[in-house]
Amino acid sequence: KSANPQWREQFDFHYFSDRKDMLDIEVWRKDNKKHEELLGMCQVDVTALPTKQTHCLELPLEKHPGSLLMLIAVAPCTGVSISDLCVCPLGDPTERQRISQRYCIKNSFRDIKDIGFLQVKVLKAVDLLAADFAGKSDPFCVLELGNDSLQTHTVYKNLNPEWNKVFTFPIKDIHDVLEVTVFDEDGDKPPDFLGKVAIPLLSV
């Protein structure tokens, strides 16, 4: 019931500097649980923003009244990576020792926000649901931890895909839950949901 809402939410996105990335933002209105209406959208050219500083942007909504006020900072990300199995960070003894030293008891209070490091190996899926008429799926896997999100490549026409990728995340809250979701790529349409598993960090 507000025309001037304040969310005060922070989100982290990861992108590679060799890409031309646009940040797409949509504002929606909810009437009830079933009905939603688009109130407007806007874009930010991430590559045009200078790094290592916070930008206060007032973005008018396209073809709709109103604007969004946002703080956007582009900075080198640390601790987040995607790699093949053969070059995973904890597979390198030197890197493993460096990480162990970083999180040893005597360094616990050096950086209060840096509380941990998570490495996830996504190997394969087995007997997935067939989402296409041909009895196959085009699966990819999305990993989410807090506001961090990374994903695998798509394996086409396969119900038993193998990704063999290693993902690393910095842990910001030990009570977070790692959510791993498998989707079927569906061209220009939204991807189809094929399954999900949730793993509380405290259970690892």
Automatic annotation (TrEMBL):
Belongs to the MCTP family. The gene is Mctp2. GO terms for biological process: regulation of neurotransmitter secretion. GO terms for molecular function: calcium ion binding. It comes from the Eukaryota. It comes from Corythaeola cristata (Great blue turaco). The keyword Cell division does not apply. Its main location: membrane. It is found in: Membrane. This is MCTP2 protein. InterPro entries: C2_dom, C2_domain_sf. It is a multi-pass membrane protein. PROSITE patterns: C2. Keywords: Calcium, Membrane, Metal-binding, Repeat, Transmembrane, Transmembrane helix. One of its GO terms (cellular component) is synaptic vesicle membrane. The lineage of its organism: Eukaryota, Metazoa, Chordata, Craniata, Vertebrata. Residues 1-59, 93-204 form the C2 domain. The keyword Ribonucleoprotein does not apply.
